[in-house]
Amino acid sequence: MAAISVAGLTKRYGQTVALDDLSFRVHENEVFGFLGPNGAGKSTTINVLLDFARPTAGDVRVFDHDAQRRSREIRRRTGVLPEGASTYDRLTGRQHLEFVIGSKGADDDPERLLERVDLVDAIDKKAGGYSKGMSQRLLLAMALVGDPDLLILDEPSTGLDPNGAREMRDIVREENARGATVFFSSHIMEQVEAVCDRVGILRDGEMVAVDTVSGLRDSVGQGSTLHVWVDHVDETALERVRSTPDVTAVTTEGEGRGGESAEPTIAVQTGGAKTDVIHAIESAGLEVRDFETEETSLEDVFHAYTTGSGSGAVAGEGTRTGTETDTDPEPDTGATEETEAGRR
Ligand SMILES: Nc1ncnc2c1ncn2[C@@H]1O[C@H](COP(=O)(O)OP(=O)(O)OP(=O)(O)O)[C@@H](O)[C@H]1O
């Protein structure tokens, strides 16, 4: 059973198509990174998963429950850190947590939750006096109440300093080790790369790629870039490098490292053996002074897919097949349609 199954999801706001026939699955107990530029439709997708926005068309299931008809059950099993959520100035950290614990019928200890996010010292201080990062830590603690089966984190590192961001990643890993599925929406590549098993890239309401980070790297066809510093460059050497297996692009740079030396550089994009490239250069009589490899970053992959140069592969995906039916006869009336406040 998939933790999240989205099939043919379209969401329109008037003339705006926020989501366009979107389909993807998140497996149980995976950390799934949901990436996309501003306005791609990430928050809209999350709002539909939690029934804060109703789809125009499509089938959306969380733990095999229909997202509209079984939203109460889904929300009970889900911890959410919504993008742009704020805390209540007049309530303390403890009171925030007690409210969530009570409304979920959980029995967590607020002190233990705040220890996890390194905020226990401020447990009885009013959130109005919290810094942005402290508020974000409190919101993360609120999402952890009741050991949810699914954690939905929308831009969770907003307002966090590098230490806070690292702690947040540690918590994602701990939650995942406990058995939780984590749906991690962000446009910060490093965060996603550090914790996610698979990544989906959304562009203009469409999923343009779903794969592991390394699979996505391969799919943009760049492999890695080998920078080779040489004594001089000539056409014979470049031609030999171009005809080396798995080399996809060869460029030269006149400046050496730091810009002050005259050492020219050959930059080679290759999915194959680096030694083949070095041999090709040396066989043309050039002296190789140094070389280094630059892996394609997820940022490069993101750029390729969100600016139109990606290959558009959606790996390991498939829309839901079969004839699952939702058995809940009681439609949940707790939905708040399309309101920002409804996400909190
Ligand atoms: N309540 C709404 N009413 C009208 N249009 C909306 C509403 N919510 C979202 N949209 C539009 O839907 C599209 C997708 O927005 P969404 O907030 O889902 O994107 P996002 O990927 O979360 O962006 P960001 O990274 O900036 O948070 C945008 O064009 C946005 O303007």
Automatic annotation (TrEMBL):
Residues 4-229 form the ABC transporter domain. Gene3D superfamilies: P-loop containing nucleotide triphosphate hydrolases. Keywords: ATP-binding, Nucleotide-binding, Transport. PROSITE patterns: ABC_TRANSPORTER_1, ABC_TRANSPORTER_2. Residues 325-344 have a biased composition (Acidic residues). The keyword Magnesium does not apply. One of its GO terms (molecular function) is ATP binding. InterPro entries: AAA+_ATPase, ABC_transporter-like_ATP-bd, ABC_transporter-like_CS, P-loop_NTPase. Residues 304-344 are annotated as: Disordered. It comes from the Archaea. Pfam families: ABC_tran. Belongs to the ABC transporter superfamily. PANTHER family: ABC TRANSPORTER, ATP-BINDING PROTEIN (PTHR43335:SF4). This is ABC transporter ATP-binding protein.
